[in-house]
Amino acid sequence: MFDTLVSTAYAPTVLDAERAPDDVAAWAASVTPGSTPTRSLAVLDPHRLSETGRVDALIAWEKLLAWTHAQQLKLLAVMAGRSVQAAASFDAIDKNWVREDVATALRLSGAAATDRLCLARAATRMAATMAMLERGEITHQHVRALAEALVAFDDDTATSIESCVLPGAGSQSIATFRRRVNRAVMAAAPTTTEQQHRQAMAERRVAIRPAEGGMSELWALLPADGAMALKAVLDARAVRGAANDDRTADQRRADALVRLGVDALDADTLVGASCGKLPSRHGLRPAVSVTVAMSTLLGLDEQPAELDGHGPIPAALARRLAADPTGTWRRLVTDELGRLIDYGRASYRPPAALAEHVIARDRTCRFPNYKRQARTCELDHRIAWQSGGRTSETNLHALCPRHHHLKHETGWTCRASPDGSITWTSPTGHRYREPPDPYAVDTTTGRPNEAATDTQ
Q1: pLDDT tens sequence across 399-453
Q2: pTM exceeds 0.70
Q3: In terms of CB atoms within 10 Å, which end of the chain has fewer, N or C?
Q4: Residue 332 class from Cβ within 10 Å (0-12 exposed, 13-18 middle, 19+ buried)?
Q5: CATH T-level assignment (fold) for domain 50-190
Q6: Alpha-carbon dihedral 226, 228, 232, 237, rounded to 10 degrees
């Protein structure tokens, strides 16, 4: 139906989409996104399309998504500031505050906002790649794969590699395209094994991500020899007692890794105590807090508890951790209003008890969408001490060093509400409300005295 219409740049109407949905889907998959209205594509009913029509519609939406990504990258590049050397953009972005505008507007973490800004700046010298993205011939992931590979090269080398890998990229999967890019990079600028190792060593790190069922995923990028040494220790510990142990080898390795961390915490505490000074931050020795409602601790209900740095955990696990006699776990209990005990003070530097309370209450940095643990943050006076602000639970909150500086050095302001939320206002006048992360509420208040009832 639309074979001749495409050549005349005719866009199908909504009525066309209703009468011949497969033809409209085929037309949409063949045109350049952004060149024609998309309303007819939006009204296509997936249930009325044939299998062929659904594939065509899927292709059309993917092309439109690529076009949209291209437009956003252009905008982000302007916000970040154009740079001849993409390699310098990471430092440049980190030293100004544009990432906060992006992060709050798009509900991203600081790292994710910086990542988008850096990609946008890198894309400014990838004109051919961006043209393909805008036409929907490649995806956002293709752009990212190439930008990451080119970040260390000068413009001439980057352009040479780009021209080598783009032909045929539109028909390649991301994995295939990455391999092709890697080969082109090695051919254009070969490096020695030792240089590659030094560069990789700079990226070593450990990351933890909460998982379901009161579990977490631990991921680490380690030097090969360090990883094998750790594996050898875990393997050795997993073998011990295997004959009388019904755990699998994987379960024993996992338990052995946790035991290494717990033993290290206990050892640090003993060493610190013998020296008269515990290794600490904010005057607190290393420990992990578990916050639980009194009613849950008593077994009267099964509300999820909160594990510091992880998030919600099942009630049974919380009770077990709260009762642990080793002292590794710090137990914090909430009242019938979901509040922790208040430690009011009048000195500038919060004493350990007040610091512990604020850290446990906030859990993370209180800037919108930032989840750096409060224990590694700084405690900021919302109303400055010099302006009459008190060192109290109501006037203190946790801010990471970056956002502590942002509050004092830029036009960003914050205002606390009685419900515990904080409203941040950017220099552009945009407002972002950061609500408190609620704890479980103790439900023992108002319960009938079961013991007294039994005796009547």
Answers
A1: 999 999 999 888 899 998 888 889 999 988 899 988 887 777 777 766 554 444 4
A2: no
A3: C
A4: buried
A5: Arc Repressor Mutant, subunit A (1.10.10)
A6: 70
